[in-house]
Amino acid sequence: YKTFDGDLKWDHNDITYRIINYSPDMESSLIDDAFARAFKVWSDVTPLTFTRLLDGTADIMISFGKLDHGDPYPFDGKDGLLAHAYPPGEGLQGDAHFDDDEHWTLGTGTVVKTRYGNADGALCHFPFIFEGKSYTTCTTEGRTDNLPWCGTTADYDKDKKYGFCPSELLYTFGGNAGGAECVFPFVFQGKEYDSCTTEGRSDGYRWCATTDNFDRDVKYGFCPSRETAVIGGNSEGEPCHFPFVFQGKSYDSCTSEGRGDGKLWCSTTDDYDDDQKWGFCPDQGYSLFLVAAHEFGHALGLDHSSIREALMYPMYSYVEDFSLHEDDVEGIQYLYGRKTGPDPTPPQPTTDYPDTDDTDATEEPEPTEPSTPTTTPVDPTIDACKVPKFDTITVIEGELHFFKDGHYWKMPSKQNGELMGPFSISKRWPHLPAVIDSAFEDLLTKKMYFFSGPQFWVYTGQNVHGPRSLEKLGLPSSVQKVEGALQRGKGKVLLFSGENFWRLDVKAQKIDRGYPRYTDSVFGGVPNDAHDVFQYKGHIYFCRDRFYWRMNSRRQVDRVGYVKYDLLKC
Amino acid sequence: WSIPLKPIFVTFPGDTIKQMTDMELAEDYLKKFGYMQTLQRSGFQSMVSTEKALKRMQRQMGLEETGQLDQPTLDAMRRPRCGVPDVAN
Q: Does the distance separating the beta carbons of B82 and A76 come in below 8 Å?
């Protein structure tokens, strides 16, 4: 391994990073995930931690760009240079840039993450069978709205699992329109456009207006790449047109004819000779995770290694089961030392924790007087600090409550308050099941709403209504559980499920119009599969496993931490 | 009789990839990644000979150090890679 001259390194271990923009090649959540995994490669073997910022200046600023992208080292189109990064320091130092003329994937071809449909955002499964025919790309067959879709299992005919593929008709990214879909035709500088365009931009990115008149509304977004779209050339984003004519000869597939570099290309119209519209054909692409892990090595202070198998070797090669080479480990530990302190507590087997079947109320040594139904712990040996993942966390009467398998704990709101519990759910709310997916207290009426599976209960004091089905609230039948609830002013509550959320008008007991919406379109930077969402002391918390992402009132993630240490104070 | 076809190369509009000869590719590569130019301690720049630069590049890449622009070296130069120079300037 080699370090930069002077052993350039960060003078702190809590490194921050920020993703400035996204590539149209992959869904933003996949890009976020690839970068997070790439940082984890290094945090696994050092005392370094990496925290993502959503705005402001971070130590490592990450961006995608093409050719001349604002620093002295322009990229060079498809292939060749993939990315570069600067050694640790102020300003541009520490930053990582990725060439967006590359086809960014996870290394084995286009990754198509679906939206909507009934597959909860699963990836497309290629090939998939539809009406007996095999499809290797997204298709608009079977639809009249021209939206491309795919099966998310091998056989749509059998499993009926599907989702919609990236399309500007479905959504945009970046820009200022909150991810709204393109509106065609739209007017830009007095001219009408029927498709995404690069006009008006110098960076080559395709965009569209999200209203019918950009000149008037100035609302726009960037167009996601369809998986069949060509890369580079002069028709980026268009699909190949087969057959096409080149030099008088007809071609039914991509060809390297006419090029000295062997790269496969195609025409995007039926006649290249007439129209001269072309682009490179989609290929396996480059693994954003692997390239990012390499670049972040530079951003932390490692130069190129001469060991071919090392991550810091300058050439790209795809490996399926990546693990950091000894040479890279030695290099980074030379700069920052080994990982110190204990590893995070591994998930505890659920046998540590009494099952609801074993916690028959009649056997538990707790008082049963109705007047004191809530305040006597059932068994102090059941330790909240050993619970790897709570069923739900919510605020009741200003106190944070943690629910798990028939029990709950509460954290007094006063400073330095100690965790109290566990208490039995069945003692305080006798009609509730053991597992509570979500709960909230209506601020106006002080009624408590509890959700479990496809049902909900409403408690007013000790009176209960329910169980009732989620559909009674106006949620679609496809919603099988509500995983988080967030008060939005008096009388409105956001209900989270999967990657979506709905706004409930509590008084009218109806879902407001315009919902569902994508969680990540409104709450950027938090996991879109959070299993607990709640508001506490002015912050919104999204929990996944034992971690939480805390969002401030400006919807910026200002902290990522452990539920165990920060909320339970273990 | 089969007559070898002469490949026809065309200039594709909007193509950002420069069509280069092997020698042009090598010189560009050696310069871009720091093998060709080294800053002397006294502060002035001196050009390193192509042979020396090639050897240095071949050593870094784990190739046979021939100092010649042979096929394995050209293949290595055509592989996708990180843009950070191998030899610091």
A: no
